[in-house]
UniProtKB/TrEMBL annotation:
GO molecular function: methyltransferase activity
Gene3D superfamilies named among the record's database cross-references: S-adenosyl-L-methionine-dependent methyltransferases, Vaccinia Virus protein VP39
Alphabetical list of Pfam families matching this protein: Methyltransf_25
Domain Methyltransferase: 3-94
Protein name: Class I SAM-dependent methyltransferase
UniProt xrefs under InterPro entries: Methyltransf_25 (IPR041698), SAM-dependent_MTases_sf (IPR029063)
PANTHER family documented for this protein: TRANS-ACONITATE 2-METHYLTRANSFERASE, TRANS-ACONITATE 2-METHYLTRANSFERASE-RELATED
GO biological process entries: methylation
Secretion signal span: none
Keywords per UniProt: Methyltransferase, Transferase
Transferase listed as a keyword: yes
Transferase listed as a keyword: yes
Length: 211
């Protein structure tokens, strides 16, 4: 069976699959992430590509997008195009599995940045991550702007800002579109133990789709 992991990153999931003998291919847009993956698994089959433009010419028995990565696509038009793309890459009777974050995972709104992590680097610098959260009820978008600061003792020597966003889903929000694009069976679980999702009181929905 052929497996595809889009958005495979540095191989946190792909490498263990490969080590267990599975025929798996990874795809990611980040050359840096794929370089790290190849350092861990030089024989891994990986392709650098945009998820919407990827076309290997083959179809897969099993496709998975892990760790709620689908929630990172807060532009819902683009998100639906990506799900359509996964359907096109799937063999008949294959399975597409992905997880999303839910409204139960909403963070409290913050008035100002809070320090989340402070670590010492091998070189003796201090790296600090600051973040604040606010939620848009209308779009179901969790905004989490972040600031990374690097200090040499008390002197700030480098600063980087990131605008991190996630779409938080409600049960029933994605299902109609998955059926619309051609999946015949869509099952939604509330955990990796495959407990059927019955409400929004879970921090993850795990979708298993086939046609």
């Amino acid at each position: 069976m052929k497996i595809l992991e889009p958005l495979c990153g540095s191989g946190r999931f792909l490498v263990p699959f490969l080590e267990r003998g599975f025929d798996i291919c990874g795809m990611d847009l980040s050359a840096e992430m794929l370089t790290k993956l190849k350092e861990k698994a030089p024989t891994a089959k990986v392709i650098q590509a945009d998820i919407l433009k990827y076309d290997s010419g083959e179809k897969f028995d099993y496709i998975f997008i892990c760790s709620g990565s689908v929630s990172l696509f807060t532009n819902m038009k683009m998100c639906k195009e990506i799900l359509q793309k996964m359907k096109c890459l799937l063999k008949k009777d294959g399975k597409f599995v992905f997880a999303v974050e839910t409204v139960a995972d909403r963070c409290p709104d913050d008035l100002d940045y809070k320090t989340l992590i402070s670590v010492k680097t091998e070189e003796g610098y201090e790296l600090i991550l600051k973040m604040k959260n606010y939620y848009d009820e209308k779009t179901h978008t969790q905004y989490s702007p972040s600031i990374y600061e690097l200090y040499a003792e008390t002197k700030l020597i480098q600063k980087e800002e990131m605008d991190f966003q996630t779409h938080l889903y409600e049960l029933g929000e994605l299902e109609p579109y998955l059926y619309e694009i051609g999946f015949a069976k869509v099952t939604v679980y509330s955990s990796y133990d495959k407990v059927i999702a019955e409400n929004n009181q879970t921090k993850m929905f795990l979708y298993e789709c086939s046609f």
